[in-house]
Amino acid sequence: VPAGRAALRPCSTRVALEGINKPVVDRIIRVDHAGEFGANRIYAGQMAVLGRSSVGPIIQQMWNQEKYHLKKFNELMVAYRVRPTVLLPFWNVAGFVLGAGSALLGKKGAMACTVAVEESISDHYNNQIRTLVEEDPEKYKELLQVIKQFRDDEREHHDIGLEHDAEATPAYSVLKTAIQLGCKAAIFLSERI
Q1: Is 12 within a domain?
Q2: Fewer CB within 10 Å, N or C, the chain?
Q3: How far is CA 173 from the centre of its chain?
Q4: Is 149's pLDDT higher than 70?
Q5: Beta carbons of 144 and 137 less than 8 angstroms apart
Q6: Which of the 8 DSSP states describes residue 168?
């Protein structure tokens, strides 16, 4: 459990699926699992390049939270009986390349990538929260708790990126826009495929 966070209770191996909007829940869990998988690969790529630098411990701290997020979504996939996206092998490579590539630009480049990705993901989580609240906040209480906590973690990562000079990266707005377009495409595809 990341420092300063309340532990989320482990999921039972199965949850009551009666009365839930299964297509909505499947789409949410599938895409969030893919996103957390991709985030893990991004941080792995950044650590491969910058792990021994002064920013290495900061990247490792964020990566540790992402590892926890992925573990939780692995549990939720089993509990809700959701299949993963078939694109995981692609996200495996693409995430690592994005992480390593941004880190090759230096600390600022890695942090610019972090800001772009985490802003996209926290916005995506906010959309999911709205969807589940509109459906039935009591019925989706556990899932809402998970998504809200992880959204807050992603916002924290976003802020850490800004604190570590992400915006000082050359061509920051172009890089941020390109990464966020990639995130939107990944979200769209992972929800469906």
Answers
A1: no
A2: N
A3: 21
A4: yes
A5: yes
A6: G
